[in-house]
Amino acid sequence: MSNFSTTLKEHFTQFLYTLHSIPAAIRFFRDNRLWEGFLRYGWVNKILVFIAIVAGIKTLGNVLSSVNKVDTSNAMALMSSMGNFFDNMAKSQWEFFTNEGFRYGILILMEIFIFHVCHRAVDILMKDKMKEPRLNDFIKAQIRIMVLGLMCMIAESIVVSIITPIISNLPGLSLLKEPLMFLIHCFFMGMLVLDNYNEIFGLKIKESFKYSLKFPGIALAVGIVLRICFLVPFIGPVIGTLVTAVTVSIVMFEQANLQQTEGSWREELV
């Protein structure tokens, strides 16, 4: 019991320390101008255009769908229909940005930003000892997060399917269902961000996932911040991913040992 209490306290300390580090991470991002150098990758502009087109098509589809429902038979009907039009548009965009699948999807689309920011942050923390990433590194990172994103979605579904019946059948615990589902989703989103730090030091996907389980407090904290940021359409996901990426880089640099002794972390996974 004492070991459990000690472990729980350690993870809770990780959680609080990560949240406390967010303001410092924002200052670190600003003072070190971590966004610099990103647009020098010519292929980035093409990807950004592609993302803009996809988002534009989604929005256009919502507009056309709502326009078809507008009643123009008389002035009162038109005014009522226009009100419904804007209401439906707002609801559609809200559902789009709060959908769980979208949240994983946007992290995948934002990977090129996350990888760049994490790499720049770690490079500064390690006094410019990191090699500059190449196009191939970004491609590998993009493929990696797609695989890990799928793994996290499956793992989340399994955990939810196991816990839901237990909570539902226990008197008085049904009220905990939604908060618990929220925390589970936040945890797995945080695991995706943590992987970017682990990847820099050469951990494979399974190794990274297993190693990240040593820092559940960090994963949960950044996941909650991400989840809250995602409630703000468009700019929220961008700010959330960048801030949490820098936060993870700083906190993991302080609490993990990946940068200290190359390969020593493998002993901890045995």
Question: Secondary-structure blueprint of this entry?
Answer:
Layout: H1 2-31, H2 42-67, H3 75-98, H4 100-109, H5 111-125, H6 135-169, H7 177-200, H8 205-212, H9 216-229, H10 235-255, H11 265-269
Helix pairs in contact: 1-9, 1-10, 2-3, 4-6, 4-7, 5-6, 5-7, 5-10, 6-7, 7-8, 7-9, 7-10, 9-10
Task: Report on this structure.
- Keywords: Membrane, Transmembrane, Transmembrane helix.
- The chain has 11 helices and no strands.
- 79% of the residues lie in helices and 0% in strands.
- It has 2 domains: 2-31 and 100-269, no CATH class; 43-98.
- The chain has 270 residues and is mostly helical.
- The protein has helices at residues 2-31, 42-67, 75-98, 100-109, 111-125, 135-169, 177-200, 205-212, 216-229, 235-255, 265-269.
- Helix 1 packs across helix 9 (216-229) and helix 1 crosses helix 10 (235-255).
What tags apply to this protein structure?
270 residues; mainly alpha; 11 helices; single chain
Low-pLDDT sequence parts: none
Q: How many domain modules? A: 2
- Biggest sheet statistics: none
**DSSP summary, beta strand count:** 0
